[in-house]
Amino acid sequence: MPETINITHKKLEKFLTELFAITGMNAEDSSWCAEAMVKTNLWGVDSHGVLRAPDYLKRLTSRAINPTPKIETVRGGGALETMTGDDGMGYVVGKAAMNRAIELAEKYNISAVGVTNSNHFGAAGLYAQMAAERDMIGMVMTNVIPNVVAPGGSRPITGNNPLAVAVPTFGDIPFVFDISLSNVAGGKLLLASKKGEKIPFDWATDKDGRPTDDPDKGFEGFLLPVGGHKGLGLSYVIDILSGLITGGVFQFGIKSMYKHPNDPSLTGHFMIVINPLILMSRDEMQTRMAEFRETIKTSPMWDDSREMMQPGEIEHKTQQERIKNGIPISAQLYEDLVALGTKMGVSENI
Amino acid sequence: MPETINITHKKLEKFLTELFAITGMNAEDSSWCAEAMVKTNLWGVDSHGVLRAPDYLKRLTSRAINPTPKIETVRGGGALETMTGDDGMGYVVGKAAMNRAIELAEKYNISAVGVTNSNHFGAAGLYAQMAAERDMIGMVMTNVIPNVVAPGGSRPITGNNPLAVAVPTFGDIPFVFDISLSNVAGGKLLLASKKGEKIPFDWATDKDGRPTDDPDKGFEGFLLPVGGHKGLGLSYVIDILSGLITGGVFQFGIKSMYKHPNDPSLTGHFMIVINPLILMSRDEMQTRMAEFRETIKTSPMWDDSREMMQPGEIEHKTQQERIKNGIPISAQLYEDLVALGTKMGVSENI
Question: How far is B92 from B71, CA to CA, in rounded Å?
């Protein structure tokens, strides 16, 4: 059996849509969840996307995640609102919140929507890009369970809370910035361990919080924030916006979907939408974004092996390649999905 | 002569107010500039504040900075506007933009104000805190001249664009997060050089853009972004918000106040203000921010020499100490200020 199997995105999307529908989600929501996860894989962000589908499906089946949430505004006024996600799928809640934020930004030119009682929503860039597709700037953040330790601390104090910003380019290449606030993701520690390499001391700590250059000790321990106090403080800000001012939970109030598979995660998201076309014409914005990109692309390099990219460019390239050649899925994940398909009774397995 | 001279903040503020007034600024503006710079020193952020006063005064005298700007809204609608700073002092422009953003947030609960044709505005935290003092969350960013090189690049491509966020705590200790997006400031390279220490390879590059562990080569070269592509991308976002969508300049359009002392810098700022009290009562917010802080403060440490702080806490402590004991000014800066006072004809020298 090969290490990876390539599956066309359409086949994968159809399969996942059916799986989500079987859990009781309506047609629109199950189709969106499948589309969003497959899109994440098309971007090459394989740490999210389809890899997480088996866990989501388990949580939907056990009703830790509510397949038919009533997502509605509960607080706020003017251009700022908070909604409850009613323990729904993070993808569905995230989409509803972004749609509401876009609606408010159409009226007020800037808006923010916070949402409580959500769950893991995948790549933050998905929602930021929804705004860009509507000619607006989307800023999306979410809190996650504390997994980042402060320098000197012996247990995690905050999450590697992601932040994504998408800007409409009115051109071929989207601008989508999407990061999390640990210096690296856990996957990089695994990779270094496999290669037998040491890791820089600012990547991770051992289980007592002490910096380590041993990737295995780092994997038992905690992640360090990007830029020390810089990433740490920004992570606090994201938690405050996503969980504290929304009336949701923050810091240790969030529940890990892995440690508490049968409980709602109570995750909070926060989305800001800005309408740049009240400030300039579409043509002017397009020209300026093209200039911005041109300056980046033509910047001289001493390292010819590298290419300057605007945020989102590499994902765009990967998407084009994978639409053509299919999405590589690990043999293990493929088997898990096939087994799930059989168990849940899909009409046509993957 | 001692290395540093301690001056009371009141004396320093009075002296600077008079100097700025002599350049033609009105009473309100000159008093605000002095207050803001002295406040920055009270926080212990000595890289900004009074250190920069001689340069600002030179630029005001030469009219590179307009001492009597007409700052007004030029584009936008609803809760989003852009203003022109009319080449005024960054401090005056920043304050006007933040005041307008607060006014809009009072009406819409979230607002954003961008501003073009400004100049160096000092610490971004000054403006973020203006919002917090009005019970609102302030997010403040600004673009600066490209001084950060992308990994692999041989010349700077973006600025270490600062970002500050202040959240009202309704308690004794403010929450003010204020960073710039280079891994470290240039001052840290100087310090390492003085101590004869090597620097980590992710701090700076030599003049060709190649990573170096030699602080002297780093000082001749460029700064690296915090977290590699993470800080780099966020810096792009800040430039787009501050300069691109506002109709101002971005990337290499900004002029360094040091390389072009006689030209306006054309700096852009962007401020977002959020009114959390439409989402919850003041009491609830106060309780939640106190809980947030308590979790940070009681987090266990393996390194007893360190203390967990909320962003802005160390500045708050320094402020209390310096209000009592005065602000330490280097002998060199003291001499420069005295000479300026004499030259510009203040009624009472420092």
Answer: 9
Q: Please give the Cα distance from A309 to A292 (Å, whole number).
A: 11
What ipTM describes this predicted complex? 0.97
Smallest CA–CA distance, residue B184 to chain A, in Å, is 9
Can you read off the two tokens belonging to residue A51? Answer: 């890899």
pLDDT, tens digit (0-9, with 9 covering 90-100), for B252-303: 999 998 889 999 999 999 999 999 999 999 999 999 999 999 999 999 999 9
Q: Which of residues 13-72 of A touch B (CB under 8 A)?
A: none
Is residue B320 pLDDT above 60, yes or no? yes
Does A252 contact chain B (CB < 8 Å)?
yes
H or E stretch at A55: helix A53-61
Of A78, A167, A303, the CB nearest to B240: A167
Q: How far apart are CA B213 and CA B200, in angstroms?
A: 6
Choose, out of B104, B236, B285, B297, the residue to mutate when testing the contact with A (most A CBs < 10 Å).
B236
B345 touches chain A (CB under 8 A): no
Question: pLDDT tens, A245-270?
Answer: 999 999 999 999 888 999 999 999 99
Task: Give the C-alpha separation, A274 to A237, whole Å.
Answer: 19
- H or E stretch at A190: helix A186-195
Q: Does pTM surpass 0.90?
A: yes
A194 touches B at CB < 8 Å: no
Instruction: Give the one of A80, A82, A177 whose C-beta lies nearest to B234's C-beta.
Output: A177
Domains and CATH numbers, chain B: 1-62+315-350 (1.10.1530.10), 69-182+225-297 (3.30.1370.60)
Beta strands in chain B (DSSP E): 4-7, 72-77, 80-84, 110-118, 137-142, 163-167, 175-179, 204-205, 222-223, 267-274, 327-330
Nearest to A154 by CA among A79, A221, A237, A231: A221
Size of interface A-B (CB pairs under 8 A): 237
Q: Does A183 touch chain B (CB under 8 A)?
A: yes
Query: CB–CB of B241/B252 below 8 Å?
Result: no
Query: Which residues, in sequence order, are CB contacts of B28 under 8 Å at separation 6+?
Result: none
**How far apart (Å, rounded) are the C-alpha atoms in residues A257 and A64?**
9
Q: Which of A45, A139, A279 to mutate to test the interface with B (most CBs of B within 10 A)?
A: A279
Closest CA to B52 of B43, B41, B42: B41
pLDDT tens across A209-235, in order? 999 999 999 989 999 999 999 999 999
